[in-house]
């Protein structure tokens, strides 16, 4: 059975560069990661982390294995203050380690 992770990310947009009028990319900063053996343990860890971080954001969309918390504005708005994501994952972390290059 494949190991699972329940991870908490701060997710926001960052300016990529001036090419073609400017471009932005999504940044994932891992805040916390819990390793679990199975889906039952993953769901329990997911709910524990959701309860821990629930007060940090005003609104939450919970769909399947992901909870997305946001303030007054979603991340696609220039007024956004970023989002907080809690995800059940089986692969490597989405943590952003470097700025992508414009091709």
Question: Uncertain runs with pLDDT below 50, 5 residues or more?
Answer: none
Order of helices and strands: EEHEEE
Shape: flat
Return Rg in Å. Answer: 15 Å
- From the N-terminal CA to the C-terminal CA, the straight-line distance is 39 Å
Structural class: mainly beta
**For the residues shown, what is the average pLDDT?**
92
Number of helices: 1
Q: What share of residues is helical?
A: 10-25%
Strand order of the main beta sheet, please? 2-1-5-4-3
What topology does this entry show?
Elements: E1 4-17, E2 23-36, H1 39-53, E3 59-63, E4 66-70, E5 83-89
Antiparallel strand pairs: 1-2, 1-5, 3-4, 4-5
Write structural notes for this entry:
It contains one helix and five strands; from the N terminus they run ββαβββ. It has one helix at 39-53; strands at 4-17, 23-36, 59-63, 66-70, 83-89. The radius of gyration is 15 Å and the shape is flat. It has one domain (4-77). It has 103 residues and is mainly β. The protein has a five-stranded antiparallel β-sheet. The model has no long low-confidence stretch (mean pLDDT 92).
